Amino acid sequence: MNPLAVPVIATWQGGRTERVPLCPACGASERRQQARDVFDHLDPAGRDLWAFWRCDACSSLYPDPRPSSDSIGEAYRSYYTHTAETGPGSLRGARAQLMALVTGYMNWRFDAHATPSNRLGVLLFCAFEPLRLKLDYHGRHLFLARQAKHRRVLDVGSGNGEFLRRASELGWSATGLDPDPDAVSACVAQGLVAFQGFIGAKGGLPEGLFDVISLRHSIEHVPDMRSDLEHCLRRLEPGGMIWLAWPNPRGLGARVFRSAWRGLEAPRHLCVPSAEAMETMLEEVGFVNVRSLRRGHHARSIARESARIASQRPGLANRARALVAPIVGWHADLAATFFARAGEELVTVAFASDGTNDRA
Ligand SMILES: [Zn+2]
After folding, report:
1. ipTM for the predicted complex
2. For ion ligand 1, residues whose CB falls within 5 Å
3. How many other CB atoms are found less than 10 A from the CB of residue 159?
4. Which of 16, 62, 85, 149 has the smallest count of CB within 10 Å of its CB?
């Protein structure tokens, strides 16, 4: 039994919360409190203070209680995923030359034919590992889907369509899926293919299988991750790849910033799984060749945002957190180059079995 009482949130939508007695990632009940006064950073004046727990068994973080399924929509009222991108426009001079080098590398790495490109980019970025890994992340490691016959990628949580455009530039046929109708409309207005809905819901997404399904910062928003992963597996071609990125609950940021850590995103993040928990879940669901990749992104921006949240809170500890944020960001950014689980963001890939790609 955990001796810490769970604070009852009577302030959230008239108490429309639900209890989460078991870890959503692994089902264990033993846990310790990570933070008990986490507010919605989009509503710092709000009265709702959420409690987050760290699972003793798998180190995932999750809120208990959390918004009930009939009230979670309220948490997204001010949460925009459809802010229009201004686009690169016409680049000139040094910026244009740099972009040509980037495109040269991306063409080589992703077997694409975008222009203008400069093949010297291959030499340049292969010589600088951190930059190379960042570019590989930028293309969501699509090159790892070696069995992709039709190059069809589904982006779950496609937001403003940024990745749909990038995937198209890399020669992929990209489809977006997002619960936000405004985000979908914004994509369609740009000529992109996107549908409104959830991966597990009927309707919305047309029938058909994909070579890659990517979920960038969306799996931690869903109430039943395991069910969503199962639905993804069903929509993958044999040998197809799932690509996931989400905040690292065991990173330096979560430990330093505690209740101010940007990765908690209360009350929209319903479980922030550890790398180990996600890898286990993927294998249990039926994926094969599960592995985490180096160089997640966003270490410095998560540190910067966490510092902003800490500075909105009283107390000396929060002032100290805001002060050390740049060190945390740089440290996590550097460490992510060497260790897959050391950054502020985790990236994991796994594959649908085709009968030959299972581990011996
Ligand atoms: Zn757990």
Report:
1. 0.99
2. 23, 25-26, 28, 55, 57-58, 60
3. 24
4. 149
